[in-house]
Amino acid sequence: MTDSGVGTFELYRQTMIGDHLCDSLEAMVESGKLTENMALTILQQFDKSFLEALSQVGAKATIKADLKTYRYFDNVWQFTLDKVCLRMTNVGPGYMTPDICCDKAKVVCVDCKLLEPAS
Asked: Which SS3 state, helix, strand or coil, does residue 19 take?
């Protein structure tokens, strides 16, 4: 289920929820419950909805980690981190979140202007 014009706008399909959506849509196309065009339309709406939902989040994250590798290609930064601790702030009044720590993480940063659909 790949489109030949894969762009930055489709970045969120690589998240866990996006991956599961792609798997489900592929199964539905294979079983004849959806056409491929319908599945692509659903994925395009997912891309738009995911980006819109993220733009409404007021929380901020602080990441502390050891930088293992980094690279910059096609206006996209990718960081591979070790010994990672993530702290969320401004999540809501009276709401405290514990730090989230893990051994390894990958962070992908994209200029938000690149995520806007071309007009």
From this structure: helix
Count CB atoms within 10 A of the CB of residue 21: 19
Integer Cα distance of 41 and 24 in angstroms: 14
Which domains are delineated in the chain?
8-55 (1.10.287.190), 60-110 (2.30.18.10)
Give dist(CA 112, CA 7) in Å, integer: 13
Please write the tens of the pLDDT for every residue from 48-107.
Answer: 888 888 888 888 889 999 999 999 988 889 999 999 999 988 777 767 788 999 999 999
Q: Is the pTM of this model over 0.70?
A: no
